[in-house]
């Protein structure tokens, strides 16, 4: 399994080493793979589960968590699990469908662990900016965890309510973390802003085109934020052990904000490309037509042979690059509770692009 190598000295917060046994549901995904790796690094016993089979340095099993009986059978041997990191997710087109399948994933996992006799102490759940209405356009910023819910049902809310009830009935604690724009890399996970930018830049450079923001001018100038996958993994470990995190909801980001208008020229310079002003377009329509260019780069540079249609979730870029309202959440609560890690996003993104080049996920941007 290929993920970006860990970064020494990333965090400031002391984390619990060799503290128990954790099950990471969704360990094939971006968030789950980094969480499983961080727990493994610090000496925990780590079990990972996902529908897709993967090779991993922890104990992985392929289980269909959407089926209650298969979930019970697949997790039957996990009688030692003290912590659950729940990063499993299934995409569906409507809110009603999202609620149905994602609530079932969580419910079936909790019930399977209870049936296995696991002495569960803590569950970490992931949410995001949609809890505040990011997907609807404008929302009050900086968003705080105490802000009221939206009137429209959402699976973030129903999962949290399900978890609160189970925690009260079964005697474990939980923490819900709300990252934004998670950046990192895991094979087979196209919902990744880092790959949207990197693959777009590589194809543009191969075609002799400048680095041009493919969104609106207004979106180019709004404030945005991201959450590094490694920082989120450290926040996950902290949440599972800190008394101040018990039964709480926290925003968690790198701790800074930026405008794409400040970063895009830096991307161009880093990639050795000319810079040009924004040009609104649909990546989802344009980029699938450039599969031949990507295949050429893969062959020339011996890149990881991920099928092009599974490489990048172009709609992720279209949404973010056409979002014309500030997206900022307050991280005061999590810092006051004891999680102090922070990153300079501009520096970190450039570092991550370099890691992707070293790992042959992206082609070299400079001739040697």
Automatic annotation (TrEMBL):
Alphabetized InterPro entries for the sequence: NAD(P)-bd_dom_sf, PRISE-like_Rossmann-fold
A Pfam family that the UniProt record links to this protein: PRISE
Residue ranges annotated for the PRISE-like Rossmann-fold domain, each copy included: 75-363
Name of the featured protein: NAD-dependent epimerase/dehydratase family protein
Protein source organism: Georgenia ruanii
Lineage of origin: Bacteria, Bacillati, Actinomycetota, Actinomycetes, Micrococcales
């Amino acid at each position: 399994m290929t993920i970006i190598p860990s970064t020494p000295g990333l965090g400031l917060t002391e984390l619990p080493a060799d503290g128990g046994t954790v099950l990471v549901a969704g360990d094939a995904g971006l968030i789950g793979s980094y969480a499983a790796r961080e727990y493994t690094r610090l000496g925990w016993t780590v079990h990972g589960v996902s529908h897709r089979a993967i090779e991993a340095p922890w104990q992985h099993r392929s289980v269909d968590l959407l089926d209650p009986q298969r979930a019970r059978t697949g997790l039957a041997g996990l009688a030692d699990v003290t912590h659950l990191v729940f990063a499993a997710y299934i995409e569906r087109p409507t809110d009603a469908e999202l609620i149905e399948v994602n609530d079932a994933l969580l419910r079936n996992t909790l019930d399977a662990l209870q049936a296995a006799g696991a002495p569960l102490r803590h569950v970490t759940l992931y949410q995001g900016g949609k809890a505040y209405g990011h997907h609807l356009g404008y929302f009050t910023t900086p968003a705080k965890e105490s802000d009221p819910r939206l009137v429209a049902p959402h699976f973030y809310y129903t999962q949290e309510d399900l978890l609160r009830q189970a925690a009260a009935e079964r005697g474990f604690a939980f923490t819900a973390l709300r990252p934004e724009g998670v950046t990192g890399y895991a094979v087979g996970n196209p919902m990744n802003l880092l790959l949207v930018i990197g693959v777009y830049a590589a194809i543009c450079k191969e075609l002799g085109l400048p680095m041009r923001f493919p969104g609106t001018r207004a979106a180019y100038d709004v404030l945005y934020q991201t959450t590094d996958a490694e920082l989120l993994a450290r926040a996950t470990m902290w949440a599972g052990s800190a008394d101040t995190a018990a039964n709480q909801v926290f925003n968690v980001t790198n701790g800074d904000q930026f405008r794409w208008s400040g970063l895009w020229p830096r991307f161009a310079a880093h990639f050795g490309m000319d810079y040009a002003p924004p040009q609104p377009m649909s990546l989802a329509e344009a980029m699938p037509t450039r599969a031949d260019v990507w295949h050429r780069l893969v062959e020339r540079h011996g890149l990881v042979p991920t099928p092009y249609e599974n490489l990048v979730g172009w709609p992720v870029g279209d949404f973010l690059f056409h979002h014309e309202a500030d997206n900022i959440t307050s991280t005061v609560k999590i810092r006051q509770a004891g999680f102090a890690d922070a990153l300079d996003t501009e520096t970190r993104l450039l570092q991550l692009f370099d890691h992707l080049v070293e790992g042959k996920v992206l082609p070299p941007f400079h001739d040697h």
